[in-house]
Specification:
Elements (H helix, E strand, L loop, with lengths): L2 H4 L19 H29 L5 H33 L7 H28 L5 H34 L2 H18 L4 H15 L2
Length: 207
Amino acid sequence: MTSTSRYQAADIWESQGSLGVINLAQPLHTLKHEHRVIERALHALNGVCVRLEWGDPVPHEALSELVDFIGAFADAFHHGKEEAYLFPALDNRGIPRDAGPLEALERQHEIERYLTGKMRSAVEKYREVDPASRSQFVEAASRYVDHLTAHMEAEEAILFRLAEEVFEESDLAALAQAFRQAEGQLSPRTKEDFEKLADELEEKWAL
């Protein structure tokens, strides 16, 4: 099956009919779409950092909301599906998880979790009006934005292209099913909830 034929119906998100007509490109399309949602939150995060650097008042609730979104969606919801289902499926197709791009990407996930923790710590200090908390948050958040942006670019340029080459129809169908089942377990929020929140955050804080 060619990459072109796999992606002819890439915009179909849900199965159709009682038997379920599965769009085989759906799992990779889903991950790419989630990257676009994450980017909206990163735009908001950048805007907050600029305001903090200017000395503008930013409520600590706004910082908490952004960091909570990152933890719930970018890490638990999005990275959670990659680590639990995409990476093992690629490993089964001969792309080892303990070497090469998969090992590097998983290490990057850990760096992003570390930076999320640094942001959470800075938010707590900001809540307590610690004068150093502004610069600490900006430093961690700026590193996070740069790191995650490069990470998503690498996934789309390298990992997802490898997946297109090695996956069979059965792999894509199994991933699509696993993603649908996992999403309800990874978060009480739906994809639509996350998208709406990302839109709101971007509209309110992005510059």
